[in-house]
Amino acid sequence: MTSPRYSLPAIALHWGQAILVFWLLWLGWTMTDLPKGAERSAAYGLHKSLGLLMLFIVAIRLVWRQRKAPPPMLVGGWEAKLAHLVHIALYGFLILAPLAGYLASSFTPYALKFFGIEIPKAGWPDESFNAFFKQCHLWAVWGGAGLIFLHVAGAIKHLLKRDGSIQRMLPGKLFKK
Ligand code: HEM
Ligand code: HEM
After folding, report:
1. Residue 114: helix, strand or coil by DSSP?
2. Closest ligand 1 atom number to CA of residue 65
3. 47-100: per-residue pLDDT in tens?
4. N or C terminus: which one in the chain shows less Cβ crowding within 10 Å?
């Protein structure tokens, strides 16, 4: 039987990831302006660790989505098609942005750490590859920011219409429709 709401794990993963994305965007945009030193290194280290965590979470989320299908869309027509496209593109962003970040960090002389634990890199010190993947990271991030804007604007529209869309992504026991 399909539930009118997303399942609790899907809801927890959605909101966990939403918080993580805003944190990563803020960290990314502030850390690059910091002067070279301990604070900048710590911010980069945290950004990379949280970004890699994002990759794990999206993998778990997609596996869960395969096992427990989301509830059918409330609206139909072009709105449903657009929302569906934006959701697919958001998943694409959640995979490509951290992947490009990982590849950019792989082509540097520095060790790559996940919350203090050194992890294997996919490359070797090479400035041109590093610059290329940094550029890919930047495009993915700006594309993702645009998608998030569209997604949140859509969510606000439904919130104002009070059509129950938002409740689908909130735990049922707390928020009765
Ligand atoms: C204030 C911020 C946000 C709000 C209010 C919000 C709200 C929602 C709602 C209500 C849905 C369910 C749509 C439906 O009924 O079909 C949804 C789905 C989704 N949201 Fe968000 N969202 C927010 C932020 C984000 C962010 C930052 C991301 C990712 C970067 C994201 C990714 C997704 C994805 C991928 C789905 C589709 C889930 C699926 O069907 O697999 N959301 N969101
Ligand atoms: C969804 C996940 C991620 C988001 C949303 C994100 C976001 C950002 C943003 C907004 C910037 C600043 C871009 C600029 O204006 O220069 C940035 C830079 C950066 N990110 Fe990420 N990031 C993510 C994942 C990662 C991962 C996994 C890594 C590496 C393991 C990484 C490594 C970097 C590096 C090294 C920079 C600095 C690039 C430079 O110095 O120009 N990011 N990121």
Report:
1. strand
2. 41
3. 999 999 999 999 999 999 999 999 988 778 998 899 999 999 999 999 999 999
4. N
Show the DSSP H helices in the chain as ranges: 8-31, 38-67, 77-106, 127-161
DSSP-derived letter for residue 71 is P
- Tokens 């804007």 sit on residue: 149
Determine the Cα–Cα distance for residues 120 and 139; give it in Å rounded to an integer.
25
First to last CA, the chain: 19
Domains and CATH numbers, the chain: 8-169 (1.20.950)
For residue 129, report the distance from its CA to the centre of ligand 1, in Å.
Answer: 33
Average pLDDT over residues 5-13: 95
pTM over 0.70: yes
Question: Closest Cα to atom 20, ligand 2: which residue?
Answer: 101
Taking 50 as the threshold, does the pLDDT of residue 1 lie above it?
no
